[in-house]
Fold each of these.
Amino acid sequence: MLFNSSVFAIFLCIVFCLYWFVFKQIKQQNILLLLASLFFYGWWDWRFLSLICFSSVLDFAIGLALQNTQIQSKRKWLLITSIVVNIGLLFTFKYYNFFVESFIYVFHTFGINLNIQTLSIILPLGISFYTFQTLSYTIDVYKRVFEPTKDIIAFMAYISFFPQLVAGPIERASNLLPQFFRKRTFDKTFALEGLKIMLWGFFKKIVIADGISVLIDPIFKSPEYYSGGTLAIAGVLFAVQIYADFSGYSEIAIGTARLFGFRLMKNFNYPYFASSIIDFWKRWHISLTSWFKDYIYIPLGGNRHGLRKQIINTCIIFIVSGIWHGANFTFILWGVAHAIFFIPGILFRKKIYAIPAYANSILIIGKILYTNCIVILLWFLFRAQSIEDVVIIFSKIFSADIFELNTTFPFHIFVLVCILMITEWFGRRNDYAIVGIAGNAPRMVRWSIYYGIMITILYYFETPLNYIYFQF
Amino acid sequence: MKGFIQHIILFIALFVILSVGIDIWISHQLRKSKTYSAGEYAVWNDIFADRIHHDILIYGSSRAWVHFSPYIIDSITKLSTYNMGLDGQSFEVQYLRHTKIFKRHIPKIVIFSLDVFSLERDTDIYNVEQFLPYMPDYDIWKYTHRNKGFTIFDYWLPAIRYAGRRKEISLAISQIDSVQTKLYRNKGYKPIDAYWSKQVEENLQKKKERYVVIDSTLKMLFERCVAECIAKQVRVYFVYSPEHILGQKHIVNRDSILTIYSQIAKKYNVRFYDFSSDAMCLSTKYFYNASHLNSVGSELFSKKLADSLALTF
């Protein structure tokens, strides 16, 4: 079920009414949320419900077993079991074919022909997200930072919580799970803010991301037919598209969760206003970046064992991040390239500029522009369908061909991108830009803005398109 | 919670009012278009504004639309004629027009323009834009909702059907204060000033043979329509207008489809004029493609038909 579909609107209204008006006990509400989440997921493909249930039940049981044993070796084996099973499932569904094909290719270059069959597998929606969420629970319980729950309903509702099940934010048990045990009282301001955040998320997805998608998808499908200038503009638009698409999804998820009294973590913090690559990674897909930091980077030693070790750990994180995004060498290359631009920040600069107060300084603007140039350049690696396409794109944009335009882009799309960026700039002091816009203005002004956004969404609303991050 | 619900209801209520206003305005503007959506708005406007009080109505698809000149039939039969032909539609949508008309006006004569495709079920409605300004309507919902193009919300919620329809909204905006003098369809009829070309012949040669699957529910609906006309004392005629000889061979079961029409004609005692063996079918000068007559052909055919009809009065 897509957020940007009429079915979701009906689903949300029904679940909201049942949640607040019919089932008023916490346990009942948790059961409702679990059933609603499974229905939400099963709407896409009910067969994969078994996978998410299996993962949840396994980690719930391992969590209890971890609490019940004090023998360190046994605890370690329990943790390894959880990691192997969860990563094993992820590997099977997401990476098996990629590794098999890569092995066959490598051996073939040495003249050895391997006869390994690839599998015809559908990638279960959201597997990368809920696998990481359930893993974080077991690891936290193992590290004793978190007491395991004995309530399987609450635990399963936490793993499959429908607003963030398919594409995050990847929640930590320490943040989200306790909310399933607290009495939820309806907070009007909190819920209204949720609706505003959702509205802005829909604007980003339907108007900006989907509007750009139809323009640039054909360009990235056959980059050889397009000039350097066209590819450069497509690259800039893709940067906006992926941000609008993913942060739009996250905001709809966060807003939806608020309607049920849940506070999800912030996933984006105006990443294109970052003044360095390090700063960018503190603002982009925060839930994933912090997951890598807490569960891979710090256990590997983080920055505690000297600069060399810190750089190696940073590289590992970015390579893993690339692989997490998809089974393609372009993603690995994207991760490596980010590491290359990230490392000088570790080596030469201690201070990381925060934006607001003096954001109008020329220095900061220069740094923001520089950071965006690097980020956009690296998005080409992310978006290209193959390494060959990357070579084609870079050979064109790093030549005189950059001054050639062989496609026209409609003017309105640039106007919309400007509206997005200006709104986010002026709303950047708030967690979510829309909440800050016209915050103290009379109701008539605020409502006019919301109606304007709604009408714009309707004007651009066509066939619902999938979210980019669904493929991850 | 009470405050939240009140807040939301007020917000939505105002948005609904705004949407109704937008809906009415876009629909009003679109209805003015005489050329968009194959000029169908002109015919729908006549139907919804109850301007069709003609003696003879012509039902059918695009072959009706471009073949039957109401002016020639008027002049010979001395009966006012209106062409209700719908481009590219199966009989279900043709029946929709019949339903709308018969609720307000019963003609003296109905001519069914037959073709080989009208009883075939389409996967989706062609030219759905024609329904947009008239959609909050039970009959339109009844005969178009099975198709993929629309959802239930498009019919009954204001402005939803215009969501994402930037072309139609732009058309509505651009029509502000514009005066369209060109009449695209006159009394439903659209003569086509195009001629047979080499390209038409090449396309015909490339065209593969096809079997048309007759949909039993559409066949029943067709019969129901004939029965309804007869029950209302309306004189019914079946007409298979000229089709070029080169185009007749591509439908492998063409003869069996014509047999179905003949059987229905016999069952309801309806006069059936089959022009598919007429001398016109041998000459390319009357056609702009194998199934459609050009303006020269349509005038000649309309004259021939009107002469035949006049003999029966």
Amino acid sequence: MSDSDLPRRGKPPVFLERQSYRRRRVNDAARVLPFIGTLLWVIPLLWPENGAAVRSSSAIIYLFGVWGLLVLGAGLLSWRLSVQAREGDPERDGTGVPGGSGGTP
Amino acid sequence: MTMLNTLVAVCSAYAVFLFAIAFVAERAAMRGQARWLRSPIVYTLSLSIYCTAWTFYGAVGSAVRSGFEYLTIYLGPSLVLIGWWWILRKLVRIGRSQRITSVADLISSRYGKSNLLAVGVTILAVVGTTPYIALQLQSVTLSFEVFGVGDLPTGEEQGHTALWVAAGLALFTVIFGTRNLDANERHNGVVMAIAVEAVVKLFALLAVGVFVVWGLSGGVSGALQKIDASPLGAWQIDGGRWAGLMMLSAAAFLCLPRIFQVLVVENDNETHLRTASWAFPFYLGLMSLFVVPIAVIGLEMLPEGSNPDLFVLTVPLSVGQDGLAVLSFLGGFSSATSMVIVAAIALSTMVSNHVVMPLWLRYAGGGAKVSGDVRSVVLLARRLSIIGVVMLGYLYYRLSGGGAGLASIGLVSFAGMAQVMPAMLGGIFWRGASRIGALTGLTLGFGCWGYTLFLPSFGAGVFLPDAWIAAGPFGIGWLRPQALFGIEGMDPLLHAVVWSLILNTGGFVLASLASFPQPLERLQGAQFVNVFEHSAAPRSWTGRVAQAEDLMIMAQRILGARDAQALFEREAQLQGLGGTLPAPTPDFLETLERELAGSVGAATAHAMVGQIVGGMSVSVEDLMAVADETAQLMEYSARLEAQSQELARTAAQLREANAKLTRLSVQKDAFLSQISHELRTPMTSIRAFSEILRDTTGLKPQEQSKYASIIHDEAIRLTRLLDDLLDLSVLENGQVNLNLREGRLSDVLDRAVAAAAADEHGARLRIRRDRGAENVWLNTDLDRLSQVFINLVANARKYCDAERPVLEIRVRQGDRLVIDFVDNGTGISSEAQDVIFEKFSRISDQKAGGAGLGLAICRQIITRLGGEIRYLPGQGGAAFRVTLPARIAMAAQ
């Protein structure tokens, strides 16, 4: 009897586990993104300085391209995090809906 | 001149428009229709006060002078926003849960509500921000000048423009910046006006950019070609400055008072940060996108020597696009005004909360309760502070002459405010950060910044003598302000930033490590660092005796009568009380203190509640002392308890010993009577039969020999008894010498069984043994051991009452060697089990064959051998277990 009960009771945790696992990974991504940005934006330090090895036009395209990608990444994460917050995020402090404490004027 | 008039008209109209926006927003907020005022987009746009006139106009100038370096100023803050999960999230949560009103309040609150620190940070902020405000005034004046080229005499008139602008800004800020006393409540009007200004400046810069790229350069590819062909065509950047400025701007973004104001204090909802995390970098990207094209076109079209800082205005003007130029002017105007407004609010909050209020509280006498209306004092202090701050900026502008020296002040100011960063980040991430550490770090950093960057920035000979900069103070070379410790040739800004932050952080960390924080610091430290685990404030008040009415009077004076009454009523309801006065519980006092902190800062609020609750308040130090005493008492009572337990144990042991002595005494008596009886019985028969032999004549030879053999038997019995007694006494006194030998257990058992069978009579006893298990080597006194075994086997032979008596000998070897002797008789009754090992105890009288000393001797022997013998109940017959320690038994080889 207890044998047939066990798998049924076991299923939801597996499902939840997966959800909160994804949640943590999204948080991780939010943590990592600034480091990626820093790395990409200090790469110009490696460019040769003298002469016309790197034209300004390519520099502009590179720097603003990285900018665009970062904005895109941050936007994507922000969207994921807001979805999480809406679904209710019981275990993470994160952006976990501060209860609209500032809601009343 | 007409152009200038138009401009003045546009400017005035724009100002009226801003006033209107702010007014409408305030009205809407008051009517509760503030939802749209609090959208994440408005929050993001309000962050754009980061882009001041210095960046609006100056970015192009910077691009002309040093290429792409201007970008770093935008990259740093973008990274901070993108990395919001690390710092901003925590900062905003702390700001909201602790009701932080400014950077100075944050630092002071974290380090034990220290007002000294707050004053320090306030001074730093004022020193760092005043030149920046002057810079904004200068940019507005300069841009005016562009439109009225030639028409205006410079000097006096310029000063008038700046004065008018400053006065207008002060007015706006006073009106909309001090409507609410509670700095934690949003300045809806101000924020809305700033958001609108953010849109205006972005739109203006984009418009100029689009015009330059598509109108003057022929599209994107044309613009890129022009860039490559221009003096800015090749990538040239100073690596140190690139990385250093990125870091500096990121640090400044966190610490600048005006940014902190909109980022943390005006934050209404933590989720807005999520939107800002991508939207603000996007905004900054757009702001900086067209800077290089504008710079390139400016260089190409305008005559040599034109001020590149004003290209944003002069490029449209030079091609006759007056409308675009005016729009661009409005953009710059917006940048300047929004910065001044927010900076003035932020600074005035700091100055009034941390400088004016503490002084007033100290010198107005009588404390918060008795003296006049605190609310009006705070408001007045704040208004005067705003006017003071703006006018200080104006004065600075006038005194510095509005020269080129001002242009560099932006980064100087950044570097100054960045000195707050170690204390701030250390405070929110490291619980060990202490007040002493923060003070040390700030002092070192501030001093180093002032000496190496701020004072030299006025030019040689103004504050620092020429000789100092060239050769060091008093000719000490390694103290030269721009080459500390003899490291020459570094960029002065980078040099100052590196040294000041190294000294700052080093001093902060070392002093924190070396000092011991006060209790309140430690509590606040835990609150800040673990803000996500618990967002409650430290319990520091005990309000049992505090007067709720007094608190009410004070709260009314600070929060205003209506708000204070509402707060008290709400709290009373929460406590389940009917009236309007809540009981002054610690919880309530804490809430009240936090509400007040929103208006006057944490340190002042703490002091004010302290004044009212007064002598009845228990400081954290007191609590700690009480806790210490309690701990000591508890320790003492625990020790007493331990002692009394020990006494009880000793008493029990004594009682036991006494009982044992009594038992022994009884035993001794019994023993004496027993032994006299035992000796007397054979003696009696010996005497009787020897008398018969002596006195009776004519005895038959059989009779003679029978009597003689009885005498002989009895004599033997007597001898055996005496032997046993002697043996026992020797064993008991421990005088016996053990004769240790090695031998096999099975051999010992063989000998014992054989010896026990020697005087066999009666039923034959079958003995069951397991020879495999008996193959154990022993190192012990084998003779004594076999004596024990003989006794046990003989007992079984004598007393086993089964029809076919069987004795089973089991041997088991674990960590001890166990030998069981189990027979199949009826066994020994449970009451007899206790006494069988006592002397002269015999199980049954009818089969009395010995003196009853056998088992007593066995026990003595086994005890001497380090083992144990006891009766094993529940085995179906009499069972004895002999246990020997492992060292006696050796594993079979």
